[in-house]
Amino acid sequence: MKRENLLRLINIFNIIIVSILILGCRKIDCPAFPEDKKEWLPYNKTDTIILVSNIDSIILPISKISVSESYSTSWSHDYSYCESYMSLKTATDSSCMMNLNVDIFATENTPDSLLELVINVGPLSDSFYGDAKYKTSNYFNSSIIDGNNYANIFIIESMEKNRFQEITLIKGIGVFQLMKLDSTLYRIPE
Fold first, then answer.
1. How open is the CA angle 5-6-12, to the nearest 5 degrees?
2. Contact 113, 120 (CB under 8 A)
3. CA angle, 91 as apex, 38 and 162 as ends, to 5°?
4. Rounded to whole angstroms, what are the CA distances from 26 to 13, 52, 75?
5. What is the pLDDT of residue 155?
6. pLDDT digit string, tens, across residues 54-85
7. CB hemisphere CA count around 47 (13 angstroms)
8. pLDDT, tens digit, 9 for 90 and up, residues 127-160
9. What's the mean pLDDT when you consider all of the chain?
C-alpha cells in the first residue's frame, strides 16, 4: 500500500512538473522591425548625413545599418511581448570629431509616439533618450519649422549636454537637425 501511494505521489509530481514546463514556456513568433517604423531612419549604407550651420558642416557617412528580423522566443508570464530594433551607426567626422549612433526599439503595435529612441553623439557621448517615459523628449504629430510643415517629429534633449543640447528626427527624413550647447543649429541642407 505504501508503495502504491508513493508511486501515485511521484506520478502526480511528474504531471505537475510537465504542466509547469508546458504552460510556463510556450514558443511565440515575433515579427521583424515594422516597415513603417523604418521611415524614422530612411537611409542606405551608402548614404551620408550632412548637417550644415552658418559656421561649418558635419559630414557623417553611414557605416552600419542593422534591422532585426523575425524570431521565435519563449513566452512566460514575466516576458510576454516581442521587441524589435533598428540601428544606425556613422563614421566619425574628422573636422569636429563626432559620430552618431541611433537605436530605435519597438514592441508589437507600438505607435510612433511611444517608440524608444536611444541616440549617442560621440565621442563625448551626449546621450538622447526619446520615449513617453522620459520628460526629455517631445513627439509632435505635425509642426511648422521655418515655414515648412512636417509630420511625425521627435525633438529629444540630451541627457549629458557635453556638446549638444537637442536632436530632431522626422519620420521620412531621418536626422533633421542637431543643436549645439551654444545654440548653433546644424540642419540638413534644403
1. 90
2. no
3. 90
4. 20, 51, 5
5. 87
6. 999 999 999 999 999 988 776 654 555 678 88
7. 14
8. 665 544 444 678 888 999 889 999 999 888 877 7
9. 80
Alpha carbon of residue 55 to chain centroid: 31
- Nine-digit cell at 83? 521587441
Residue type, 2: K
Give the Cα separation of 166 and 128 in Å (integer): 8
Backbone dihedral angles phi then psi of residue 87, each to the nearest 5 degrees = -135, 140
Q: Are 94 and 105 in contact (CB under 8 A)?
A: no
Name the grid cell of 184.
548653433
Cα–Cα distance, 52 to 21 (Å, whole number): 57
Closest CA to 150 of 172, 130, 129: 172
Whether the per-residue pLDDT at 163 is higher than 60: the answer is yes
The span from the CA of 58 to the CA of 52, in Å, is: 6
With CA atoms as reference, report the closest residue to 48 among 142, 140, 174.
174
Cell of 190: 534644403
Q: Does residue 189 have a cis peptide bond before it, meaning omega lies within 30 degrees of 0?
A: no
- Do you know the residue count of the chain? 190
Question: Does the N-terminal peptide bond of residue 42 adopt cis geometry, omega within 30 degrees of 0?
Answer: no
CA distance 167 to 177: 6
Q: Does position 186 have pLDDT exceeding 90, yes or no?
A: yes
